[in-house]
Design goal:
The strands form seven sheets. A three-stranded antiparallel beta sheet has the order 1-3-2. A two-stranded antiparallel sheet has the order 4-5. Helix 3 (62-71) packs across helix 8, helix 10 (242-251) packs across helix 11 (287-297) and helix 14 (339-352) crosses helix 19. A hairpin with an 8-residue loop joins strand 4 and strand 5. It has 530 residues and is α+β, with helices and mostly antiparallel strands. It has helices at 2-38, 46-52, 62-71, 73-76, 86-89, 129-132, 158-169, 177-188, 194-218, 242-251, 287-297, 308-322, 329-333, 339-352, 354-357, 379-382, 397-404, 451-454, 517-527, and strands spanning 60-61, 107-112, 119-127, 134-137, 146-149, 239-240, 264-265, 359-360, 367-368, 376-378, 427-429, 463-467, 471-472, 477-478, 488-493.
């Protein structure tokens, strides 16, 4: 009897083990099936990838992102509620209410987990190409303006916005799971779901651990009114610090090396097929490598960049901008062009500008290459600010980028597609000037507000204020005041290292030898037509 009882117990345990294993396998199978439904459908076109696709920069759960401005108005409305909501104050381009959760263009919503890119049961938000490369052109504060895809956004203060998020997340007293749940229910009149609560708790703990670990590298983030202080956050609207961010993840250097390359403006992405080296300094040949470095600088990883949907965004976004036409001056600003003056200006352009920048061909969409187009013009010749090409590690950047991507990684570039190499000049690349009126502000660091100043028809301002600047259709550029207001708050001082507006004295220096005001006025008129 005892032996039979022992055998029965063993059989029962075996049956229990089989049942538990079956339940476990069923749960695993169910999870696999569920995961397949978590990731959003593939964008329908290259344009949709550009506007809505994930670049692997998932940062915050959607539910948390939606209520952060409610919990932290001091961070997301640093100029006070009278200056507008966070979309206005940080210079994002407002999206449509029923598309992409009503978020601004370029803020992606996905079901990829931060870092790994694994499927997530709740949505996360991140940044994609359109956040920096979609902008509005408006001539007055009351003007709704025209949205232009591919245009560098001169109003976007993304570095400050990132600091606002980090400051909020690190506030352990005000940002808790309980406060998130209450704020979510107050806004949406429904409780936060179970999966959202679980993922939010995990995210909050993991993100705080990550941010605290980075404090020795990045220091404590700024917040409140400091977000508008140009001394503390030197990039400001329409600019970022690409060399500093790239060095950080390439060599994980603590502290950030100095000099660090300064700030560069956000470029326009029209007709990228014409760019042989799509960077201001001509360091990268492959535009997909450029896209991946931009994503890595905003939080993507080597791991999630291999995920099909994320890799597809980098690739398809380039397909979209490869032959994207820029805007036409007359269409966007509803202004006429004096054709007789433009005709005279064309001759001046071909004489003084065409060799470096090329010119429109005879047929629509054609561009004639100039003799020096696509070349790096040495700093000694062009005379512009050298911070971007004279920082520590600049000469090593090609090797650092090549070695950063492991063998077999789908984004590992060819070494021949990376510069500088020994003997390469330190300078800036000459590019085509499609829709040049929309490239404002000018020079790689955004230190010249208008084309009238760039061609030295008018003197270049040394101190002015940036933010949500209106467009000046007469001088072709940004209308920049010399006193701040709620919309134009960032002090741009060209006397600061990296901000210089010197150089590029073509055709002539202002009131220098040969200076011809009439010819310059004609040239400015012609530039409206490119």
């Amino acid at each position: 009897m005892a032996r039979d009882g022992k055998g029965n117990m063993i059989r029962a345990l075996l049956i229990l083990a089989v049942v538990v294993t079956a339940i476990y396998l069923a749960l695993v199978a169910g999870l696999i099936v569920a995961e397949s439904t978590w990731v959003a459908p593939t964008p329908a076109s290259p344009r949709d990838y550009f506007l809505y696709g994930s670049t692997g920069t998932e940062l915050v759960p959607l539910a948390v992102f939606q209520i952060l401005p409610d919990l932290f108005p001091d961070q997301f409305q640093p100029a006070g509620p009278q200056a507008g909501d966070w979309v206005d104050q940080f210079g994002f381009v407002r999206g449509q209410p029923r598309i992409n959760e009503g978020l601004p263009l370029g803020i992606s919503v996905s079901h990829y987990r931060p870092g790994s890119g694994a499927p997530s049961p709740v949505a996360f938000v991140g940044f994609n190409c359109a956040v920096c490369h979609t902008a509005k052109i408006h001539t007055a504060d009351s003007d709704n303006g025209a949205v232009v895809y591919g245009m560098g956004n001169p109003s976007l203060d993304l570095v400050a916005f990132g600091n606002a998020i980090k400051t909020s997340v690190l506030d352990e007293q005000r940002l808790t799971l309980d406060s998130i749940e209450k704020a979510y229910e107050a806004r949406f009149h429904q409780p936060l779901g179970l999966s959202a609560r679980l993922m939010t708790a995990l995210w909050l703990k993991g993100m705080r651990t990550q941010l605290n670990a980075q404090l020795p590298l990045r220091d404590w983030p700024f917040g409140g009114q400091d977000l508008r202080n140009s001394v503390l956050l030197p990039s400001g609207p329409g600019r970022n610090q690409p060399m500093e961010e790239t060095i950080r993840f390439l060599i994980d250097r603590t502290p950030t090396p100095w000099p660090n390359g300064g700030s560069s403006k956000i470029p326009c992405l029209y007709q990228q097929q014409r760019r042989q080296w799509p960077q201001f300094d001509g360091t990268l040949h492959d535009p997909i490598t450029r896209n991946s470095l931009a994503a890595l600088g905003v939080g993507a990883t080597l791991y999630n960049l291999k995920v099909a949907g994320i890799l597809g965004t980098l690739q398809q976004s380039y397909v979209y901008v490869k032959d994207l036409d820029g805007p036409q001056f007359s269409d966007v600003l509803h202004a006429s062009v004096d054709q007789s003056r433009a005709g005279r200006g064309q001759k001046a352009y071909l004489q003084y500008c065409g060799d470096c920048h090329g010119w429109p061909g005879d047929k629509p969409g054609e561009w004639t290459m100039g003799k020096r187009q696509g070349q790096v013009i040495p700093i000694a010749e062009i005379g512009t600010d050298s911070a971007r090409v004279s920082f520590r590690y600049y000469d090593q950047m090609g090797d650092l980028i090549y070695n950063f991507f492991p063998a077999g990684h789908p984004l590992k570039p060819n070494r021949s597609d990376l510069r500088p190499n020994p003997g390469d000049p330190h300078g800036y690349i000459t590019e085509p000037l499609e829709s040049v009126f929309s490239h404002a502000p000018y020079l790689h660091n955004g230190s010249v507000a208008t084309l009238a100043e760039l061609i030295n028809l008018k003197p270049r301002r040394t101190v002015f204020y940036r933010g949500d600047n209106n467009y000046d259709p007469m001088d072709l550029g940004l209308s920049v005041p010399d006193q701040p207001d709620a919309k134009r708050y960032y002090l741009f001082d060209t006397g600061i290292d990296g901000n210089s507006n010197r150089g590029h004295d073509y055709p002539w220096a202002y009131h220098g030898p040969g200076w011809d005001e009439k010819t310059l006025k004609d040239l400015l008129e012609y530039l409206k037509t490119i």
